[in-house]
Design a protein that fits this description.
Chains A, B: One of its GO terms (molecular function) is chloride channel activity. The structure is a homodimer. By secondary structure, chain A is mainly alpha-helical. In chain A, about 55% of the residues lie in helices and about 10% in strands.
C-alpha cells in the first residue's frame, strides 16, 4: 500500500519552483505506524524535527515516495504560508517615505482600476461558460432526441442509450484528461483551495493561468457531459485566478511583464485582490454581489478594512453587471438586466410563495433533515475520498473513473426515464427540451426534462413549476439517484462544483416534502411545493457545505426576495448544528485530508493552559546582522532545517545564551541577496555593498529560485553579508508566558507568518509559525494535538 | 464667550463616576489663543502634558469651566477607551483553565440567548415606536382637519395655523425638555455616538437605561411634533442600549443584579453585544438584517469573527421578525410578514421600474448632485452647530430653539399648503390623510398630504405614486423648504434621525428630475419618476452621511429589489467622492466637533516617517511588582497624571534607567485592589494577601469608584501591594523604531487601549494610547497633528 507512485489531486507540485515535491502516504491512523514504514528512509529523522518552520521546496532526496498523507490527524509541512505582514525593512520604509500623498492617491486609484478589471474579466469568463454550456447542451439534446425519435420506432432504444452514454463519456474524457494529466489543481470546485489561500496558506498552482484555462474547459466538459455537477464553484476559483493575474501586471507562465502594478507584487496586496476575485466569482455565479463580499470576508477576514471591502464590493458589482449585460446582448435584449448570475432561482413573488409564521417549525424540521442528509453525503464522500487516495491515484485511473461515472450517470438517467411513466401535458410555458419518449402525443416525460436540462434549469423548474408538475414517485427516485451520483462525482478528476447538485437534491426532496404536506392538509394552506423546494435546497446545501452568513445572503440574493432571509437563515443554522454533530463540512473534510495547516477563527476554548513556550518551535536558527555568506548558504541548503524566517540577533555565538532580537529576515529575501551577490569582502575595510532596490525583490516575487540554483564560489563563501538593511527591524514578538489563545489572536488578526517568542530581556527563545498553532484542535476527548508530517 | 457654564449635548457627564466633568470651550482655531484665555487657570499646565494617557474622571478642580472644545483640530482627553484586549492575568487564566469544554459550550449558548433577547426587545421597541407614532399622528390629523374644516368656512384659517403650530410645539417641548434637562446623551440620532462606541471610545451615558427611555419618548415627541426628522437613527441607538443592558444581566441604574451573564461583564464581550444591538436596530429600522450586520462591521470590525458575525446576524433577523410579527398582529393580519422595518420603500417590481444600461450615466450625474447638495447641507449644519456651541448651550435655550423650530415647521408647511394649488383627484388608492383644503370637491391637496403624512409615508408616495401625482412646482418648493428645515433640525436637543429627512429631500428632487427628464424625452422611455426618486434619495443620503457598503445593502433590502444594487452603489460612491472633496460626512463632522479620538481604518498613508518613538507618551509612570500602597494612591490621585494603564517593571528606581517590562496593570484593577485592601504588611515576613476573585472585578465593572472615594489610612499607606497576580503579564509591545502605520495596525486590529513601547532590552520607554494615534491625520498640507486638550 505504501511506496506507490502517484500524483495528488490538487497539490502535486510546488508554487515556488515547479519541481516535484515528495509526498508520503500515511494511510494509517497513527504516526507510529507511519514512521515504521519509512524507518530506513530519511523521513524518520525529519519527522522528529517537529520544530520546523513552514518548509519550502528544495528537498529532492525523497522524491521516490509519491503519496499523500490523508490522515486528518496530520499537518503537512509542505505548505508555505502567505505573509500578510509587510516586511518593513529600510528599503521599504525609504520607498514609502519618498512617496508623496499624490502617489498614494494614484495607487489607490490603480487598486480600483484593478478591481474593475477583475470584475469585468470574471463576468466575461462566466458569460463564456454560460453560453458555451448552453450551446453544447443544445447540440447534445438534438443528437440524442434525434436518435431516440429514430430508434423508438424500431425498438432499438439500447442504441440510443449507448449513443448517449458514449457522447457523455467522450465529452467528459477530454476535461478529465486535461485535469488529471496537466493540472490537478484545476480539479473539483476550487472552493477549498480558495478558502486555504484566503486563510493564508499557499496552495501550489492554485492561482496560475494554466489552472484557469483548464478549469474553464474542464467545467464545460463536465457540465456538458451530463455529470451531476455545477459550474458555480469553479467560477469562484476562476475569479481568484483572474485577480491574482491582473493585480501582478504580468504573467509568469506567459513570460510577459507589462511593468504595471509593480507595487502590488507582494503577498499582502495580492491576497486582497484575490479576495476581490473570489467575491466577483460568487457574484457572477449567483448574481449575489453582497453574498460575494461576505464569502470573501467569512473566509479570510484577518484583513477587514473599509476601503478594501468597498473595492471588493465594487469588483462584485462589476462582475455581475458585466455578465448581465453580455448575456442580455446574447439573448438579443440589449440593455436588459435580468440575468445577474449563472444560476437564477427565479423570483419568489407571488402570493402562494409568502410563508407564514406557523410554517417556521416545519422549515426547521427540514433543516434537521438537511443536516442529517448532508452528514450522510459527507461521510460517504469521505470514505470514497480515502478509497481514492489509496487506490485511484494514477492520472489514467482517474480518467477511467471519470468516464465510468459519465457512463453510469447516462445509464441511470436513461433507466429512470425509461421506467418513469410521469407524463405531463405540454403546457403553455413549454419546457425547453421536452422529450416525448414513452408518453402519448402532446405530453412530455418530466423525468427526462429533469435529466436533460442543465441542472440550473432543473432547479428552477423544481422551484417554480406549478403544483402537480412533478409526480412524487419521480421526485423520490430522482432524489435518491442524484444523491448517489453527486457524492460519487465530487472528488473526481474533473472541474466541477457542488452547489448545484446539492441544491437539486434538496429541491427535489423539499418539493416531495411539500407535496406530502399538501396531501396531509388536503391542499388547503400548503399551497406551493416550490416554497418547500427552496427551503429543502437551502437545507441540503447547508448540510453539506456548512456555510452560514454568506450562504444565507447568496440564497436571498438569488431568490431576489428579502423576506425569505429568516427561514433560510434558520434552516441553514439548523442544518449546520445538526450536521456538525456528526461530521464536518465537506470543504473542511477535504482540507483536512490534505493536511493543510488551516487556522480557524479562534484557538480552542480550552487551550488557555498552553503558553507560547509549549507551542513554539525551539531552538531557532538565527543569523547575526553581519553574517558569513557560507553560513547562510549552508543553513538555506540544509533540508532538515528549511525554515522560511530567521531572527537576526545581536551575536550569533555557539554558546547556549540566546541572542537579543534585532530583526527578522525571510528565506526569500536571503535568496535575492545571494542571487545579486550583495556581499561585503572581509578583506576590505570599507564596506561596499551593491545597492538593491525594492524592485529586485518584487521582480523575483512570487517564484523565488531555490537555493540550489544559486552558485556561490568558495571565495564568496568567506565574504560577509550585511542584513541590517533588509531585515524587518520590528517583527512582532510575544513573551514566553503568553497563552495560546492570545498568541493565536495576534497571529490571526495580523495574518502573520512568523511570530518571535522572546524572554524578558528580549532574547530569542522560539518561533511560532502557522503549523504550531494549527495543530491544536478540540477533539472528542478535549484538546488534541496533530502531528506534523514532512509532506 | 469663555467661562460660560453649560452642558454638552452628548457628553456632559462621565460614565465612570457620574460626576460632572469640566469642559472647556476652545472656540478659536488655534491652541495658542486657546491657552491665552486660560493662562491663569490650571488648564495651561495640563495642556502641556501631552504625554497623558486617556484621562479618567477624577478632576474636579476645574469644574467651573463648563464649555466644550468644538475645535476640530483638538482631541479631547476626557474620553476613555474601551479595552477590547482581555487582561490575561493569573486570576483570569486560572478561571479559564478551570472551565471545562462543556462550560465553554454553555457560555456560547448563553451568547446566543442574549442575542435572541436583544433582537426580540429591539423589535418590540421598534414596534412600540411605530404604533405610538401612528396613533399620535392620527389624533393630530383629526384635530387639525376638524379645525380646518371648521374655520375654512368662516375664513379664519389663521386660527387653524395657530392651533396646528401650538399643537406641534406642545408635543415637541415635552421631548425637548426631557432631552435637554435629563439626558443630553439622548439627543440626535445617536449614530455618531454608537460609531464612537464601536470604534472603542467610551462616550459617557450612551448605553444607559435612562438614555433609552428618554430616547424612545423623545423620538415619539419629535416625530409626532411634525419636525423634519425620522425615527430610524434612534432605533440603532436603542438597539445598542438594549444590548448593553441585557448582556450584563443587571441594571446599575435600577440597582438590580440578576446574577446572570456575569462572564460578559467586561469591555470585550459587551462591545460584541453592543454591535449586535446596533445591527438589530438597523434591521428593525429598515427591515435590513444584512445591512445591519454590515453597518456594525463597517463601524467597528476590529473584531470580525465568524461566530460573532453569525450571532449579530441572528439578532438582526430576530429583531426584524419580531417587529414584523407584532405589526402583523396590530394590523389584524396575524402571521402576515410584510412589515419588516419601520420604513418600507415598497416593492420596486413593475416593468417601468426596471432600469436600463444607458440610464447609468444619468444616475451617476444624480450622484454628483447628491454629493454637492450633501456637502451644502453638511456645511450649513456645521456652521449652525458652531453657533449652537457658542450661544445656545443652556438647556432652556435649547428647549426654546426646539419649540421655535416646531412652530416654524408648522408655519412653513401651512404656508406651502396655502399657496400651493396642486390639487389631485381622490383616486382609487386613496391617500390615508387626504386634506381637501382649497381644492374642489373630490380632490385633495397633494402638498398637504406630503406634510401631514409621517415622513415615511411621504417617501413611499414619492417612490410609488403614479406619474403625475406631484406637480413639479410643488416638488421644487417642498425640496427647498424641507432642506432648510432638516438642516436646522439636526442637532436640536431632541431625539431625531437624519435618514428619513435626507431620503425625503432626495426623493423629492429625484422625482422632480425624473419628471424633467420625462418632459425632455416626451415621456417615451423615462416612464417612471419613482425610479428617479429612489436614486435621488440614495444620492442625497449618501451625500450627507457618506456611508458606503452598508448603506447600499440597506437601500437594496429596503427596496426588496436586488437589481438596484449596482446603480445605488454607483450613486452612493459618486456622492461620497464628490462630497468628500468639499467636506466630511455629517456624522464625522459631529464626532470631530466633540474632539473624540476616533481611530480610522488605517494610519495616514504618508506617515511612514513617524515611528513609535515620536508617537508615544514618555516618560511613563510605572509600578514595581511589589509596590507601596501610598505610592499607588498618590499616582492615582494625581490629576495631572491620570493614566489608565501602568506598566509593571522589574524595579521602580529613581534613576533614569527604565525598568524591564513585566506586565501592565489598569487603573480600574488598582482601584478594586485598593477597595478590597489587598495589602501585604511590611512587618510580616509571610505575605498574606486577601484572595480576590474575578467576580470582584466584574462586580465593580463598569462604574469603578473614583480614587477619592477610597479611604486609605496612614498605616495602610505604608503597606505593600503585590501586583503580579493581577497585572497582565503579557501586554503587547513594539520596539521604538516601529513605524506609525505598523503601530496603528496592531493597535486597531486588536482593539488595544495601551501599547507598551520597549527598547531592545525590553525596558519600558513609552506608552502608546488611542490619542497618540488619533491625532495624526492627512490635512490639506500633508500630515497634520492635532493638539490634545484636557477636556
Amino acid at each position: 500500500m505504501a511506496n506507490v507512485t502517484k500524483k495528488v489531486s490538487w497539490s502535486s507540485r510546488d508554487e515556488g519552483t515547479g519541481e516535484s515535491t515528495p509526498l508520503v502516504n500515511g494511510a494509517g491512523k497513527d504516526t507510529a505506524r507511519y514512521s515504521r514504514q519509512f524507518s530506513n528512509s530519511s523521513i524518520l529523522r525529519r519527522l522528529s524535527t517537529v520544530d520546523l518552520d513552514d518548509q519550502s521546496n528544495e528537498d529532492t532526496e525523497t522524491s521516490h515516495l509519491k503519496e499523500i498523507p490523508h490522515n486528518e490527524k496530520l499537518l503537512s509541512s509542505k505548505y508555505e504560508s502567505l505573509d500578510y505582514d509587510n516586511s518593513e525593512n529600510q528599503l521599504f520604509l525609504e520607498e514609502e517615505r519618498r512617496m508623496s500623498s499624490l502617489e498614494f492617491r494614484m495607487l489607490e486609484i490603480s487598486r480600483w482600476v484593478v478591481c474593475a478589471l477583475i470584475g469585468i474579466l470574471t463576468g466575461l469568463v462566466a458569460c463564456f461558460i454560460d453560453i458555451a454550456v448552453e450551446q453544447l447542451a443544445g447540440v447534445k439534446y438534438n443528437v440524442v432526441k434525434h436518435s431516440i425519435d429514430t430508434f423508438t420506432e424500431v425498438g432499438g432504444l439500447s442504441i440510443s442509450l449507448i449513443l448517449w452514454a458514449a457522447l457523455n463519456a467522450a465529452i467528459v474524457v477530454v476535461g478529465s484528461i486535461a485535469v488529471a494529466f496537466f493540472e490537478p489543481a484545476a480539479a473539483g470546485s476550487g472552493i477549498p483551495q480558495i478558502k486555504c489561500y484566503l486563510n493564508g496558506v499557499k496552495i501550489p498552482h492554485v492561482v496560475r493561468l494554466k489552472t484557469l484555462v483548464i478549469k474553464v474547459f474542464g467545467v464545460l466538459s463536465s457540465v456538458a457531459g451530463g455529470l451531476a455537477v455545477g459550474k458555480e464553484g469553479p467560477m469562484i476559483h476562476s475569479g481568484a485566478v483572474i485577480a491574482a493575474g491582473i493585480s501582478q501586471g504580468r504573467s509568469t507562465s506567459l513570460k510577459r511583464d507589462f511593468k504595471i502594478f509593480e507595487y502590488f507584487r507582494r503577498d499582502t496586496e495580492k491576497r486582497d485582490f484575490v479576495s476581490a476575485g473570489a467575491a466577483a466569482g460568487v457574484s457572477a455565479a449567483f448574481g449575489a454581489p453582497v453574498g460575494g463580499v461576505l464569502f470573501s470576508l467569512e473566509e479570510g477576514a484577518s484583513f477587514w478594512n473599509q476601503m478594501l471591502t468597498w473595492r471588493i464590493f465594487f469588483a462584485s458589482m462589476v462582475s455581475t453587471f458585466t455578465l448581465n449585460f453580455f448575456l442580455g446582448i446574447y439573448h438579443g435584449k440589449v440593455g436588459d438586466l435580468s440575468n445577474p448570475g449563472l444560476i437564477n432561482f427565479g423570483r419568489f413573488e407571488n402570493e402562494a410563495m409568502v410563508y407564514n409564521v406557523y410554517e417556521i417549525p416545519v422549515f426547521i424540521f427540514m433543516g434537521v433533515m438537511g443536516g442529517v442528509l448532508g452528514a450522510i453525503f459527507n461521510t460517504l464522500n469521505y470514505w470514497l475520498t480515502i478509497f481514492r487516495i489509496r487506490y485511484i491515484h494514477r492520472p489514467c485511473l482517474q480518467v477511467m473513473e471519470a468516464v465510468l461515472v459519465a457512463v453510469v450517470t447516462a445509464t441511470v438517467s436513461f433507466a429512470m426515464i425509461y421506467f418513469s411513466n410521469d407524463c405531463q401535458p405540454l403546457g403553455e410555458d413549454q419546457a425547453e427540451y421536452p422529450l416525448q419518449l414513452f408518453c402519448s402525443d402532446g405530453e412530455y416525460n418530466s423525468m427526462a426534462t429533469a435529466f436533460f436540462n442543465t441542472p440550473e434549469k432543473s432547479v428552477r423548474s423544481l422551484f417554480h413549476d406549478p403544483p402537480g408538475s412533478f409526480d412524487p414517485q419521480t421526485l423520490g427516485l430522482f432524489t435518491l439517484s442524484y444523491f448517489l451520483l453527486a457524492f460519487w462525482t465530487y472528488g473526481l478528476a474533473v472541474s466541477a462544483g457542488l452547489f448545484i447538485p446539492s441544491l437539486l437534491i434538496g429541491a427535489a426532496w423539499g418539493r416531495l416534502f411539500g407535496i406530502f404536506l399538501a396531501k396531509m392538509s388536503n391542499g388547503s394552506i400548503w399551497a406551493d411545493p416550490g416554497k418547500y423546494a427552496l427551503i429543502g435546497a437551502a437545507a441540503q446545501l447547508g448540510g453539506i457545505v456548512r456555510m452560514t452568513l454568506s450562504l444565507t445572503v447568496i440564497m436571498v440574493e438569488a431568490t431576489g426576495n428579502v423576506t425569505y432571509g429568516l427561514p433560510i437563515m434558520l434552516v441553514l443554522m439548523t442544518a449546520k448544528i445538526i450536521g456538525d454533530y456528526f461530521v464536518e463540512g465537506l470543504y473542511d473534510i477535504h482540507i483536512k485530508l490534505q493536511s493543510v495547516p488551516f487556522l480557524h477563527w479562534e484557538a480552542p476554548a480550552t487551550s488557555h493552559a498552553l503558553t507560547a513556550r509549549e507551542v513554539m518551535s525551539s531552538p531557532v536558527t538565527c543569523f547575526s546582522r553581519l553574517e558569513k555568506v557560507g553560513n547562510i548558504v549552508d543553513v538555506l541548503s540544509n533540508a532538515a532545517m528549511n525554515n522560511n524566517g530567521f531572527p537576526v540577533v545581536s551575536e550569533f555565538s555557539a554558546s547556549d545564551e540566546p541572542g537579543r532580537l534585532y530583526g527578522l529576515i525571510l528565506r526569500s529575501q536571503l535568496i535575492v541577496l545571494l542571487k545579486h551577490k550583495v556581499f561585503v569582502e572581509r578583506a576590505h575595510s570599507s564596506l561596499i555593498q551593491r545597492k538593491l532596490q525594492m524592485k529586485d525583490f518584487r521582480d523575483a516575487y512570487p517564484r523565488f529560485p531555490p537555493i540550489q540554483s544559486i552558485h556561490v564560489s568558495q571565495d564568496e563563501r568567506e565574504c560577509m553579508m550585511d542584513l541590517s538593511e533588509f531585515m524587518n527591524p520590528t517583527p512582532y514578538t510575544v513573551p514566553q508566558e503568553t497563552s495560546l489563545p492570545r498568541v493565536f489572536k495576534l497571529f490571526r488578526a495580523l495574518g502573520l507568518r512568523h511570530l518571535v517568542v522572546v524572554d524578558e530581556e528580549n532574547r530569542v527563545v522560539g518561533l511560532v509559525t502557522r503549523k504550531d498553532l494549527a495543530r491544536y484542535h478540540l477533539g472528542k476527548h478535549g484538546l488534541e494535538e496533530m502531528q506534523i508530517s514532512q509532506t
